[in-house]
Write a structure and sequence with these properties.
Layout (H helix, E strand, L loop, with lengths): L8 H9 L1 E5 L4 E4 L6 E4 L1 H10 L5 E3 L2 E3 L3 E8 L6 H7 L2 E3 L4 E7 L2 H11 L5 H4 L6 H9 L5 E3 H7 L5 E7 L5 H19 L3 E3 L3 H5 L24 E2 L2 H12 L3 H13 L2 H17 L9 H14 E4 L2 E4 L1 H12 L2 H11 L3 H7 L17 H20 L15 H5 L2 H14 L2 E2 L1
Parallel strand pairs: 3-9
Antiparallel strand pairs: 1-2, 2-3, 4-5, 5-6, 6-10, 6-11, 7-8, 8-10, 12-15, 13-14
């Protein structure tokens, strides 16, 4: 592990839980504000669990594996069962293949893995917010017999109340094999019980509000500010798409909803461009409707700007996206707003492609407006196509859940562009 080691693991856990009230070589007792019971454990206990982590051959932000064990955090999207019932119902043994499957709280080893990853963030203690109200936690701990609670029982009921799929195999298996077993397990549950269990990939997605974290644009000072009424009238369909994106639990749906805001203008901007080009052509002093060559040139111009489908003329979506960005997006304002939200994001766009789609980099520092619009158009459109298309032989395509962490990084760009479009096409009330 990167941040936790034998020297600091005990201290990190103590600082997270509360204040040490007693300590000797074999016993540590900690008092927490979240329960009246004493939390007790030993150095030996913690170090033994930590040593178990040494056998880990793979860790992701929300999964880990040894040669015989795989564990991954899941989100229960629409279960008809409570967590306790799920633990009992979906715990099963494959005797033939010597594999055990179950749903349970994070194991102690996995809690250490998650904590290690969270420590990459300076404010990890703030990120580790309680997942249940304090009074509810106190009542829950009161149900545990005795005056003391083990540290694992405390952690899994407070900070790490994560459901995980846990697979144990007598046969040693690769990461790919374990991933296949997880996919088979969740499909078996979904197919038979109409229950969706989604493997989670992004640790901040789990411990903080999911999706892109936009800072409040209006900060409250010591003097409470009044909430101003709206001064503009917006296109209602765009607000619906925008709200769907913000409320979505799926990065895929969030991206597509923001894209729908942009896509809304495609017909208008394309038709305007087509009309302008035709008007320009036919009003030229060299054009004559009597000359066959001039008319054929006009047809070629229309065909160049359009694509012809079986049902008639269909505009070129990529061209329409470019026209929309050029007409409505102010690159200077976009860059300024990005800097207000995340100072590192400009460099991310400049240096990092979208891995699963191979969407190109975007240099917002470039003073060439047309060049920046072209780069934005390609990054957005290529990524959109990777989400929409899933042909077997397609190289650039989105894998649900697997690529969510990468896709989430695109949301700041998409959201700010969608917001500019909504505002710039509004009217004063």
């Amino acid at each position: 592990m990167k941040n936790l080691n034998e020297e600091n693991v005990v201290n990190v856990l103590c600082n997270l839980v509360g204040n040490i009230i007693y300590e000797n070589n074999n016993l540590i007792q900690v008092k927490s504000e979240y329960t009246d019971k004493i939390i007790s454990f030993s150095n030996i206990e913690i170090l033994k669990v930590y040593e178990e982590c040494a056998s880990i051959i793979h860790t992701d932000e929300l999964s880990f594996a040894t040669k015989n064990v795989y564990e991954i955090v899941i989100k229960d999207v629409n279960s008809n069962f409570g967590f306790r019932n799920s633990k009992e119902l979906f715990s099963v043994e494959d005797i033939e293949n010597r594999i055990n499957y179950k749903i349970d709280f994070s194991s102690f080893e996995f809690i250490l893995v998650q904590l290690d990853r969270l420590m990459d963030y300076e404010d990890y203690e703030k990120i580790l917010s309680l997942q249940l109200p304090r009074m509810f936690l106190k009542r829950r701990f009161e149900e545990i017999e005795g005056d003391e609670i083990g540290i694992y029982d405390f952690l899994k009921n407070s900070f790490f109340r994560n459901q995980t799929i846990q697979i144990k195999s007598e046969k040693e298996r690769s990461i790919n094999e374990f991933n296949e077993l997880v996919s088979s397990y969740v499909f078996q549950i979904s197919y038979n019980y109409n229950t969706v269990l989604v493997p989670q990939k992004n640790i901040q997605d789990l411990f903080k509000r999911r999706g892109i974290l936009i800072r409040q644009r209006n900060r409250f000072s010591e003097i409470e500010k009044e909430f101003d009424p709206p001064r503009r009238k917006y296109i209602s369909e765009l607000i619906s798409y925008y709200q769907m994106a913000m409320a979505s639990e799926s990065p895929y749906l969030e991206f597509i909803s923001y894209y729908h805001v942009i896509e809304y203008f495609f017909d208008t901007v394309f038709n305007d461009e087509l009309v302008n080009k035709i008007r320009e052509k036919i009003t030229m002093p060299t054009f004559s409707y009597k000359r066959k060559k001039d008319l054929l040139d006009l047809v070629k111009l229309v065909l160049k700007l359009s694509s012809i489908g079986n049902d008639g003329m269909v505009h070129n979506e990529l061209n329409a996206l470019t026209l929309t960005l050029k007409k409505y997006i102010d690159i200077t304002d976009l860059r300024k707003e990005i800097e207000n939200q995340d100072k590192n994001y400009i460099n991310y766009l400049k240096t990092e492609k979208v891995l699963f789609s191979n969407g190109n980099t975007v240099n917002l520092d470039n003073n060439d407006f047309n060049c920046v619009c072209k780069e934005l158009e390609n990054r957005i459109y290529i990524t959109r196509n990777a989400l929409i298309h899933s042909k077997e032989l397609e190289n650039s395509k989105y894998q649900p859940f697997h690529d969510d962490k990468v896709l989430l990084k695109e949301m700041l760009l998409l959201r700010l562009i969608a917001e500019q479009l909504i505002i710039r096409t509004s009217q004063v009330l």
